[in-house]
Amino acid sequence: MSFFDKFKAGMTEAGNKAMNVVEVNRLKLQNSSKQNEIDRQYQVMGKMLFEATLNELTLPKEAFAVNMNRVLVLKSEIEANLEQIEALGDGKHCKNCGSSVPAEARFCPNCGHIFEAPREPQVPQTPQEPKITQTLQAPQAPEAKVNPLSLDKKDTGGN
Q: Quick one: where's region Disordered (predicted)?
């Protein structure tokens, strides 16, 4: 390999690393904005609760549904960004304590959290507002017990 080939390979690798750093920083900035939005949603819910309590009112769960749904969407988007950051970088993020650990680590050296086996990063879907609903399942009818075939005892012997 000539000097220029080595130089070209080195420059290509440096360019790829720089692109990864830019992408990781972009995702971290998005996560920061999403976390700020989550904090605003919590603030709105807290204000609603405070005013209701002050006026001696009770709020139904539906009063918080829009805010709660937004928080859930934002948290799932943050999780998707963290998975992308892990895929781009040479480390991973501990969900338990928040520290960065080497990609090959099986547990967090800071808190001892055991990591799952690596999986393919999921492509984030267009977030839709999840509905907070309680699903009720209809009771299942008991299964009828089927008796095995019974054999009639017949004389098949010769008389």
A: 119-159
Which pTM was predicted? 0.55
SS3 at position 153: coil
- Ramachandran angles phi, psi of 93, nearest 5°: -115, 125
pLDDT above 90: residue 15: no
pLDDT of residue 48: 93
Q: CA nearest 20: which of 64, 92, 85? A: 85
Residue 93 forms beta bridges with which residues? Answer: 100
Among 157, 145, 132, which residue's Cα sits nearest to residue 62?
A: 132
